[in-house]
């Protein structure tokens, strides 16, 4: 015992007991007895061996199939599926038991009905809901474990190679799936496949090593060494761990009956060691029953007609059969059992208790012999939780919807305002107006509403909702559809989708575009100027309010009066010096404009610009913000008509 083991043996045992109760899988380091904590302090060569020799390491690395074991829980014993009971009903779950019925001459009986069966669970009679006769129409699932450690070299190994080669070539169909595994094969290599050539190669390389303790690789030299009894104990654990892993993998993602053929001259029972949670014979049987796997122990010795007690128990408890003597006849029974059977379905009345429940099934018809599983393991609450979590994790990801193509609609004229927001974000304001109609065009209907969706670069929805058009004197009033969208976005790309509708809510067109959102965390910056328009003194008084909505149009009549608002930012909220100029279309200064400063550093500065004194034509307003930290400029283009 290590030094740390003397100091904390009781605590370690208590911790392992708690982990076992939670379904924890022991680490490879703990099984190897590495000092206090294992994997991180393990030698580099040991860690390489764990990856390379997965099955042999199964005696110390069952964690490698931990996820598969948990996924196997979803195929609960006999394909148990948890029902969703109504609130008024007692909790129940569906149980399915596979059974094989033969007559006195060993022929399959195919015409039994639910009334021809009698099923008892824990001595209580249960009504059978259905008992269909199942014929395998798709891929059957087979696994063969060639336990070289427990097969003698020579004639026994020769018989196995010949019989299994015929089995692969003659008994399997083109759709059947098969995996052939040997003790030193990696657990990560367990893959059911229809590749017959790889199966033939694995069978051809099989050799018996019973009684041969010469190590074949670095792992065996380092970890399966010592006296013959010690080596035999380690080899027995390898075999049980491999059978457990194969049973779990066979049941992953598939229902119905599955088959595991174990080639060995007797199945050795490995006792559980204190402080270890490695698979035992009982554990392998439990995994097989949960995954609806039937195990067929195959003894390759020519003179052996009596199976060992553990082999008989392994077969009987999983609804399999022992194979000895005539190997070809035994393998034909394997295929027949996997091809046709009854699937008895009934509803168990008890809740999820995680216990084993005895099931006795008999045929009421005279002369019919029935072979079925002896019971099943009910799911525990932890099993159900793990199954639900893993099912959610294993759900295929929903394909991302295709991004609509960029399209600028001719039906609307949007305006995008950008200003400094909170927390380093940028505040975005969006308004829109119907585009001017072409004279004489009566075919195009006018836009009355826009359904706007604003998406961040990561797909998050920043704004979603309807917008009505803006215009002269437009105001956002509580309880009505707004005329502007206001939200904060991180600097970067912003995706805008606008569904354009008419007055009857029929979609006329769509507008999809990207908006570049700048970062206003600069020493000096000017936000996007917004323009409010008024046609008379009454409208001008209305737009001089926070609820007034800016317009998207940049074409105005000489009878209108404009109120231009814009924020300007200096370092540390200092107010920069502001100026504005009215320019002609050539960029020449016409006159200086008066700027009313904002009441707060983050507020809006204002320019009052009557248009009555301007001739028809195009104009610009140039805004300038200066401070010792720098300078920022912006320009506004607009057109004046009569």
Quickly give the structural class: alpha+beta
As a whole number of angstroms, the C-alpha radius of gyration is: 39 Å
How is the biggest beta sheet arranged?
5 strands, antiparallel
Give helix % range. Answer: 10-25%
The average pLDDT value, as a whole number, equals 81
Poorly predicted ranges: 1-88
What's the number of helices?
13
Task: Report the portion of residues in β strands.
Answer: 25-35%
State the shape: elongated
Number of strands: 30
Distance between the termini: 100 Å
Which features characterize this protein?
642 residues; disordered N terminus; 13 helices; five-stranded antiparallel sheet; five-stranded mixed sheet; alpha+beta; elongated
Describe it.
This protein is an alpha+beta fold and 642 residues long. Strand 2 and strand 3 form a beta hairpin. It starts with a helix and ends with a strand.
SSE inventory with pairings:
Elements: H1 3-21, H2 28-32, H3 44-52, H4 66-72, E1 93-102, E2 117-121, E3 124-126, E4 128-130, E5 133-135, E6 141-146, H5 155-171, E7 177-181, H6 196-204, H7 218-223, H8 228-251, E8 258-263, H9 281-290, E9 293-298, H10 309-317, H11 327-339, E10 340-348, E11 356-363, E12 369-372, E13 375-377, H12 381-394, E14 412-420, E15 426-434, E16 449-455, E17 461-467, E18 485-489, E19 492-501, E20 507-517, E21 525-526, E22 530-534, H13 537-543, E23 555-557, E24 561-566, E25 568-569, E26 577-584, E27 589-593, E28 605-610, E29 617-627, E30 630-641
Parallel strand pairs: 6-7, 6-8, 8-9, 23-30
Antiparallel strand pairs: 1-10, 1-12, 2-3, 2-11, 4-10, 5-10, 11-13, 14-15, 15-18, 16-17, 16-19, 19-20, 21-25, 22-24, 24-28, 26-27, 26-29, 29-30
Helix pairs in contact: 4-8, 5-6, 5-11, 8-9
């Amino acid at each position: 015992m290590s030094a740390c083991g003397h100091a904390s043996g009781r605590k370690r045992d208590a911790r392992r007991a708690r982990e076992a109760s939670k379904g924890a899988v022991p680490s490879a380091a703990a099984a190897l007895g590495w000092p206090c904590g294992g994997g991180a302090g393990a030698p580099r060569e040991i860690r390489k061996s764990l990856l390379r020799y997965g099955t042999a390491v199964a005696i110390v690395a069952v964690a490698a199939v931990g996820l598969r074991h948990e996924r196997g829980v979803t195929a609960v014993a006999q394909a148990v599926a948890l029902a969703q009971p109504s609130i008024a009903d007692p909790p129940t779950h569906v149980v399915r038991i596979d059974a094989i019925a033969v007559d006195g001459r060993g022929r399959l009986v195919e015409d039994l009905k639910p009334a021809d069966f009698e099923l008892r669970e824990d001595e209580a009679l249960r009504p059978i809901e259905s008992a269909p006769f199942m014929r395998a129409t798709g891929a059957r699932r087979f696994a063969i474990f060639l336990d070289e450690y427990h097969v003698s070299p020579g004639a026994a190994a020769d018989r196995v190679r010949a019989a299994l080669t015929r089995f692969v070539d003659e008994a399997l169909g083109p759709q059947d799936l098969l995996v052939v595994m040997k003790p030193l094969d990696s657990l990560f290599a367990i893959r059911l496949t229809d590749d017959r050539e790889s199966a033939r190669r694995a069978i051809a390389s099989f050799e018996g090593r019973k009684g041969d303790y010469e190590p074949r690789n670095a792992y065996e030299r380092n970890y399966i060494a010592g006296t013959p009894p010690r080596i035999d104990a380690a080899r027995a654990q390898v075999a049980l761990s491999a059978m457990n892993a194969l049973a779990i993998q066979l049941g992953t993602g598939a229902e119905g009956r599955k088959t595991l053929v174990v080639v060995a001259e007797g199945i050795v029972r490995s006792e559980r060691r204190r402080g270890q949670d490695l698979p035992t014979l009982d554990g392998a049987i439990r995994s097989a029953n949960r995954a609806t796997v039937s195990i067929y122990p195959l003894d390759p010795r020519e003179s052996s007609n009596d199976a060992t007690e553990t082999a008989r128990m392994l077969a009987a408890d999983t609804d399999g059969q022992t194979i000895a003597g005539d190997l070809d006849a035994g393998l034909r029974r394997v295929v027949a059992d996997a091809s046709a059977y009854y699937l008895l379905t009934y509803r168990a009345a008890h809740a999820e208790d995680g216990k084993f429940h005895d099931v006795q099934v008999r045929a009421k018809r005279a002369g019919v012999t029935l072979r079925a599983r002896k019971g099943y393991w009910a799911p525990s609450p932890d099993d159900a939780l793990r199954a639900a979590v893993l099912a959610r994790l294993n759900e295929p990801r929903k394909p991302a919807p295709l991004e609509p193509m960029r399209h600028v609609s001719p039906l609307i004229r949007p305006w995008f305002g950008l200003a400094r927001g909170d927390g380093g974000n940028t505040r975005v304001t969006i308004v829109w107006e119907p585009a001017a109609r072409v004279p004489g065009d009566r075919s195009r209907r006018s836009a009355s509403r826009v359904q706007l969706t604003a998406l961040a670069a990561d797909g998050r929805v920043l704004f979603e909702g309807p917008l009505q058009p803006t215009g002269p004197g437009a105001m956002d009033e509580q309880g009505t559809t707004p005329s502007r969208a206001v939200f904060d976005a991180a600097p970067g790309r912003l995706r805008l989708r606008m569904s354009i509708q008419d007055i009857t809510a029929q979609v006329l067109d769509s507008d999809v575009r990207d908006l570049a959102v700048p970062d206003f965390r600069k020493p000096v910056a000017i936000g996007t100027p917004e323009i409010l328009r008024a046609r008379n003194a009454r409208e001008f008084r209305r737009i001089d309010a926070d609820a007034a909505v800016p317009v998207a149009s940049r074409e105005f009549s000489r009878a209108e009066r404009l109120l231009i608002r814009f924020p300007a930012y200096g370092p540390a909220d200092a107010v920069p010096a502001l100026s504005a100029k009215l320019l002609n279309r050539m960029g020449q200064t016409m006159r200086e404009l008066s700027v009313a400063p904002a009441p707060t550093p983050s507020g809006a500065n204002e320019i009052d610009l009557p248009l009555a004194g301007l001739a028809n034509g195009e104009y610009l307003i140039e805004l300038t913000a200066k401070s010792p930290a720098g300078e920022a400029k912006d320009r506004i283009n607009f057109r004046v008509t009569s």
